[in-house]
Design goal:
Elements (H helix, E strand, L loop, with lengths): L6 E6 L3 H12 L4 E5 L5 H6 L1 H20 L13 H24 L4 E4 L3 E4 L2 E4 L2 E10 L3 E3 L25 E5 L3 H13 L2 E5 L11 H13 L3 E3 L4 E6 L5 E5 L2 E5 L1 E4 L3 E3 L32 E3 L10 H16 L13 E3 L5 E5 L2 H6 L4 E8 L4 H4 L5 E8 L5 E7 L3 H13 L4 H5 L21
Parallel strand pairs: 1-2, 1-6, 2-3, 6-16, 8-9, 8-14, 9-10
Antiparallel strand pairs: 4-5, 5-6, 7-15, 11-12, 12-13, 17-18, 18-21, 19-20, 20-21
Helix pairs in contact: 1-7, 3-4, 3-5
């Protein structure tokens, strides 16, 4: 008798969430295929987290050389070669692509190269062939969105910025989210003149207000031209390959313009119209706690569902999906106390509620803060400062949020994420012995509440 389905699970999208869901489902015994039209690994591996962090590392060397003089090192004659960074990055991405392929091959996942289009609740068309699956998982992520202004075709998005043929000496970055902010720090650190334009009164909406304000001050000290309540109304081709931007405060020429003005679900030509899959008011795929859409056989997870747009979240969701659907272990994804970082310079680390979120949720809070010059910079001559902040519930003494701007903020807040997840109180922090001398010890030596 011919089987009705080619696969138990067919995944469209081989990013972090799709690969993890496919691999674990196959390990649990399911017959699985993944459809991917581009490189394996999705946004994170190819044009997101990984290349971005490599460029962050590259951008930190200039300040390290400057600061080394205070410690007795001679650092004259230092230069930066864009081509070397770009090409070495590409080699590393190719290596990771191959690893992802091995991860899928090992448990027997079929990799189908091409664009997948839904033709029904349990069928997908790829390269002229229709595949049938009992369950379909959509994990196609998001795609950069461009503002509708004249000349927007002249701008870059985060998809292209890593692979420029030439380094842009003058760069305009439009946007106030973490992607725009990270690239502003990266290219400024690499030596470009960077203007970051944001239409709001303060960037990084959703982060703690004190953290946002403090980072703006530090980035300006490092040379980024931050302009808030600022608009870019048009772009046009200038002389010698430059781009002329019409700004709310004048006109300026740039070698390149990066739009980091949001992302939208990557659902073009996905064939959702052939299913009962519904979208939210914001345009994301509507799913329940088990990632099931309004079409019972179709599931979706990761960035395209409009939640936390973070790689580890997509991976966690994928694990919960695979365990629930194919391991007989019903599992719900937990979204509280998710730590995250912004790899600006200096970086942000954060976990738990912001002060504003805690108050809005009805908590009476006590705030503990420390703003200090790190020990390293007392000799390096750098005037960069660090900010640490704890948001504490007055009634229970539980630490609701921990936030930091400063070196190694992401590394430090990963550990704090465990503490907050376990329900640590301020008293628990106070009775923890710090490691001296480190910046991290400040989190366990904060004693005086903010007035």
């Amino acid at each position: 008798m011919t089987q009705r389905f080619d696969y138990d699970l067919l995944v469209i999208g081989a990013g972090s969430g799709g690969v993890r869901a496919a691999r674990k489902s196959a390990e649990f015994g399911a017959r699985v295929a993944v459809v991917e039209e581009a490189a394996l690994g999705g946004t994170c591996v190819n044009v997101g987290c990984i290349p971005k962090k490599l460029y962050v590392y590259a951008s930190e060397f200039a300040s390290a050389w400057r600061e080394a003089k205070g410690f007795g090192w001679r650092s004259e004659g230092i230069s930066f070669d864009w081509d070397t960074l770009r090409d070495n990055k590409s080699k590393e991405i190719a290596r990771l692509n191959a690893i992802y392929e091995r991860l899928l091959n090992a448990p027997g996942v079929d990799i189908i190269t091409g664009h997948g289009t839904l033709t029904g609740p349990q069928s997908v068309l790829v390269n002229g062939h229709t595949y049938h699956a009992e369950k379909i998982l959509l994990a196609t992520g998001t795609w950069p969105a461009l503002p509708d202004i004249p000349g927007n075709e002249l701008a870059l998005t985060s998809n292209e910025i890593f692979d420029l043929a030439q380094f842009p000496q003058r760069l305009l970055i439009v946007g106030g989210g973490y992607i725009a902010t990270e690239f502003a720090s990266i290219f400024s650190g690499l030596g470009a003149e960077v203007l970051q334009s944001y239409r709001g009164e303060l960037f990084l909406r959703g982060f703690d207000h004190d953290i946002r304000r403090f980072l703006a001050e530090e980035m300006r000290k490092s040379g980024v031209d931050l302009r808030f309540d600022h608009h870019v109304s048009a772009l046009s081709a200038g002389a010698s390959g430059t781009i002329t931007a019409q700004l709310s405060d004048g006109e300026a020429d740039f070698d390149a313009v990066l739009f980091a003005t949001g992302r939208r679900p990557n659902i073009a030509h996905l064939g959702l119209e052939h299913t009962a899959v519904a979208l939210t008011e914001q345009g994301y795929l509507s799913v329940d706690d088990n990632f099931q859409t309004d079409e019972p056989s179709i599931y979706a997870l990761g960035d395209m569902t409009g939640g936390w747009e973070l790689t580890p979240v997509a991976i966690g969701e994928a694990m919960a999906f695979a365990q629930t659907q194919f391991a007989g272990q019903p599992t719900k994804m937990e979204y509280d106390c998710i730590p995250t970082a912004v790899f600006s310079q200096p970086p942000i680390g954060t976990v738990g509620l912001t002060e504003e979120e805690a108050i809005a949720a009805g908590h009476s809070v006590t705030i503990f803060e420390s703003d200090f010059r790190p020990l390293k910079h007392t000799v390096s001559g750098c005037d960069e400062r660090t900010l640490m902040k704890l948001v504490v519930d007055q009634e229970s003494d539980r630490v609701l949020g921990a936030h930091m701007v400063g070196a190694d903020a992401g590394e430090i807040c990963q550990g704090l994420g465990i503490a907050l997840k376990m329900g640590a109180t301020k008293a628990d922090f106070d009775r923890t012995v710090g490691i001296h001398p480190t910046a991290a010890e400040e989190f366990v030596t904060l004693r005086t509440p903010r007035a």
